[in-house]
Amino acid sequence: MGCSSVWILLLSLSLSHQSVTAQAEACKTVVQADIVFLVDESWSVGQTSFSRVKDFISIIISSFQGMVFGTEGVRFGVTVFGDVPKMRIALTDYSSQEEVLRAVRDLPYVGGSRRMGDALQFLVDSVFSPVISRDHAPKIVVMITNGRSGDLVDAAAKAVADNGISLFVVGVRGADEAELRRIVSEPHEEHLLRGADYSVLETILPKLSRRVCFTASEPPLPVKMSQPVEKRVVGPRDLQVSELAHSSLRLTWGQATGGVTGYRLLIYPLSSSGSLPLQQRQVDVKADVNTAVVSELSPKTDYSLTLYAVYSSLIGDSATITVQTTPLPQVSNFRVIEEGLYSLRLGWTTSLGKLNGFKIFIPRSDRPGFAYENLLPGDKYSHVIDSLEDDKKYTISIYAIYPQGPSETVSIVGKTLKLVRVQKFLVQNATTDTVQARWASVKGATGYRLTWESPDGHIENINLGDNFNFYMIQGLHSASEYTITINPIFGDVEGPITSTKLKTLESSAVQTLKVSAVSTSTAVISWNSVPGATGYRLAWGPTPEFVGRDRPKQLALNGSTTEYQMRNVAHDTEYVLSLYVLFGSAVGPGISATFRTSPLGYVSNFKVSSYTRTSIDMDWSPIVGATEYKLSWNTGDGSPQSHYLDRTVLTHRIEDLNPQSIYTIRICAVYGNSEGPEISLSQLTAAVSDSQQIQAVREVKVVDIGVNAFTLSWKKTQGASGYKISWTPFMGGDEKSHVVSPSSTTFNIDNLRASAAYKIQISSMVGRREGSPVLLTARTLDLPKVNDFAALNTTDSSTVLNWTHVAEVSGYLLSWRHISVLETKTETLGPGFNSYKINHLFYGRTYIFTIRPLYGEVEGPISTVYHKILGEDPPAVIVQALPATAPPRITTASISDTTVARTASRTTRHAIAVPPTKPITPKKPPGQPRVTEAKSEVPLHHLTTLHAETTGPPRPTCGKAKADIVFLVDESSSIGANNFIKMKDFIFRVATYFPIMGPQGTQIAVVHYSDEPRIEFRLNDFKDRNSVLRALRGLRYGGGNTKTGKGISYVLQELFQESLGMRQDVAHVLVLITDGRAQDNVVPPSRIARALGVSVLAVGVSNADMEELNKIAAPTSYKNIFYSPTFDDFPSIEREFINIMCSEELLSEFKLNDESAQLDTPTEDPAELLKPQGPCSSQCMKGQKGERGDGSGLGGLRFRQSPGQFDPFTSTKGEMGERELMVYLGCQDDQGELDHPVLPANGELKGYQVIWVYLEPLVQRDREEREECPVMSSQAQTQITFLEGKESQDLRVPRGLLVYQGSMDLLAVLASPDQRGHQEYLSREILVSRVRKVYVGNRE
């Protein structure tokens, strides 16, 4: 930029900051100079003044015209100081005047204290360090400050002067002139300038710029050099050997003094006699090094190490040390890691050095006639020796083979297992239809076979995995003695049998539940004893109308308890209580009841019995439960006075009152720490001239109470000319009054509100004078309540509600909802109803049913019933009779946990007849045992965890995490090899947070995807942490397109399989890492992943499409979408990512319940129970003439579904002929989406189940929206249509439905609303369809 540009810049600065108006003198005589501005940025400066300082500096820099800037000319720098000095602009940063001015303009203001001494020392050590400063350029500093230093400055100022730095100081306002004189260069008058304020810095511009220019034009000031001190030359010393190994060691020493140019190390191997052999080695080391690694040594050999100091013209002193290398490392941690009946699995820790291999053998002397030896590769760390004998000891030896030779042998003794029976087999906690079996695990067993036989000879059994030591046998008959046996399984060999017997109970339910002795804060609960019960669980909480009055509570009681006193319950609150029978950890049926605590009572018959000029006598009736009474009074605006009286005191005289004054007197009952409602009356004290008092009305009482009226009675008062009756609502409202004749002794108060308390006063009248009022309180009756409200005739999907007819009602309002869902469904019924059947309920769920009587527009009090949909008897299993030669039937049970909310709606119905439900009786093949295959019998549950924000260690770990994690890694061409390495490092760091890897902890798999997905390694490929980390280091990069949808589908079908290591009882996590937008559809596979219970975490990098990631990872209670702006920014999300991955929210999202969690409380409903659906569940296995089925379809992910829904990845085969399940998942009529196939099914068509949902905000407009078809289960409604033996119909599903088809039912969710009545519309459309037939049961 030329001179004209400089002046334009100066002009602009002048216009924008009018406070700096003067011009600096132009400087054109400087050749080379280093000029630094040292600026005070302490709190006393402030943002405005700091901006003025920047303008001031800019003008001085601009005054240097027509000269070279940068390395060969003038350089400028800016250093600020507050708490610590900071070099904002270094002398070497910029090479042009324009760049420096731009940097000055952008300087930020921070604030802080003022440490001037540190700033001056920083100039010497950093700003003008030998690396930055120039020998022939003057060094100039201009310091600008407005206060006294917070530290010492003298030593630092001397260091500045000694280093040849010219220091100018501009002192503003509160600067200490004496301190500044000690700092500035001499002469002080030339280098110290004062300014009254930052706003007038322009006044010193000409003088300062002229002096800086003059100093910069002169030669640099000399630097004072300290005289060197001669030091005695000392050679290397303190030789030490560390990191000693068989082929290397590290030598460390103390540095030699003097002008050392290097070191020479001589290495002599010694013979066994200690003399020096001929060969030796020499290693030269640099002078600035004090350690060296010596390698290529021989194992177990003595060496003499001599180190010399080398100078420019001679070899200096030396130091010598003798050391012996270690032998070749033995195999470490050699152990037996698993014993089998006929095998031993051995393990050891691999060596870090180079290995040719291992030799493992059993010496011949150990087992005559048996010899074993095997040569293994060097990367092996485990080995199985099989074909051994059971219950025998073996000595096994191993040694490592190195290039230098073999290591010493290591031996251990292992013993094969003995075929033993199950120990500590305990069968207990019997109910009417279940028993619990527990046993001690048998070492080495691969599983267990549990068998139970009924008195009539019917046998069932189940094969359990090796991790089972508990199982609940269900579906038993009451009052029956069962023989229960168990035997361990060792691969293909079965162990001995352990047997026991147990009888189920005749009844396991509480028959009577009573609530008595109810007060304001207590109630006594009692019930009948249940034989065989180990305990009871009592739960209680306010009903919906009283939510917030108290919190839900529950407690466990021992089996001998049949009565419990509830304390500290809220007053005037309706509670629902549920009592459950406990049989060990199993929860039996429950029974519910409601009760309401008494309200806090108000004082009745509160009246003035007499009064004088200075006193008033009060009396009242006692209140049950009161601990004392609080009496208070005041007159006019005077402050109230109070007095507490014992509960036995029912009269009190208030004294020291003023004559002819109106006093307001209040009283309330005190219940412990709570005060009851307060009532009040007013009384005029007598005047000094009053000769006669008006008598109070006597024997006032309420003789009749109705829903809307009271009747009062009293005795006549002598001399009264009438009586005044007034009444007002107790909780506030308008006061009404009426005067009756002196002959009246009764009065009816009409038109009152039902169930409301009123304050009533009656006083005698003598002319216009009114006597002392008598105050009493009364409460109108409640509207009649529905009585005997109960749920009867419950099936597995419906219940019939019954109640006693209420006189004079205009109808009933009936409502119901699932216990964990807020939306309620209601029906308004006519007055002729006394029962109503509710269908389409979910099996195993608890519902809240309520009913209110209607009196025109007025709703009466509520009655509530909590009821669990289980049916009166265990749900029947529909099976067909099998021929006597048919093989055992194999059933696999699955348990789902789906909550369906009901959309609130109200319709009016009139009484109709409810047809009886036809029971279905199961048929059992005589004499044929039934075998149940199960991997886990533990139902699902929800965990609620409270997280507290805490400050933990810098590096979180996941020591308790147990999950199957698959990393789906984008390797498309947009990433590149370098970025792929950074992505690989991120995965590696995440893996290091898991201390336990393998079947007992976290398992990790990695899949790459581009055009085609490929597996790097599976979940069960590696059994320990080191192997997984080593595999992650070896990940390879491919390249291609971004087919994310295909990658997700591939992981779901190919990686999450039990045969590949997936475990059903741990969390399944898919971690997607990508940098761009997918080139295929990601919505269908993502929806399937969520339906299969896979937790998805999405990590987007660089150009990742965040909208697409939101489709892949649906919203959850925890954060599951992360974004890294670049591949270098992975560390910024690492900690948050690992905290989420190891959080209880994620790991417990789909975790299985333990047996003790099967509870059903009023506030949290248990998991939906398994409802048998036909002869074969969602996974059936083929069996012919006793052969074991092929099990196709077993072992993969399972749908989180309602009973009757089926896994889209499963196709199975039945007992007779080919039986395929009908499976479909997707949106009808979408052209671009690949749906799972619909497979034909054989059997008899039983019926349809239809679920629909109103989705007005999601009306489909184009194909892309239609493909998403969300399942809004939380808003779904349902209808079930049974054909009842009719001829099977063809089926067609309307366009726009999201469909799940299975062998028992069809579930459809309408994705666009139809206001014509969904039940009739869907039934009509489905039954006239034309697509496929859906059947249940087998056909020839």
UniProtKB/TrEMBL annotation:
The keyword Secreted applies. Gene3D superfamilies: Immunoglobulins, von Willebrand factor, type A domain. Keywords: Extracellular matrix, Glycoprotein, Repeat, Secreted, Signal. It comes from the Eukaryota. The keyword Secreted applies. It is found in: Secreted, Extracellular space, Extracellular matrix. Residues 1158-1189 are annotated as: Disordered. SMART domains: FN3, VWA. InterPro entries: ECM_Assembly_Org (IPR050525), FN3_dom (IPR003961), FN3_sf (IPR036116), Ig-like_fold (IPR013783), VWF_A (IPR002035), vWFA_dom_sf (IPR036465). Residues 34-208, 964-1141 form the VWFA domain. Residues 235-329, 330-420, 421-508, 509-601, 602-689, 696-784, 785-873 form the Fibronectin type-III domain. Residues 1-22 form the signal peptide. SUPFAM superfamilies: Fibronectin type III, vWA-like. This is Collagen alpha-1(VII) chain-like.
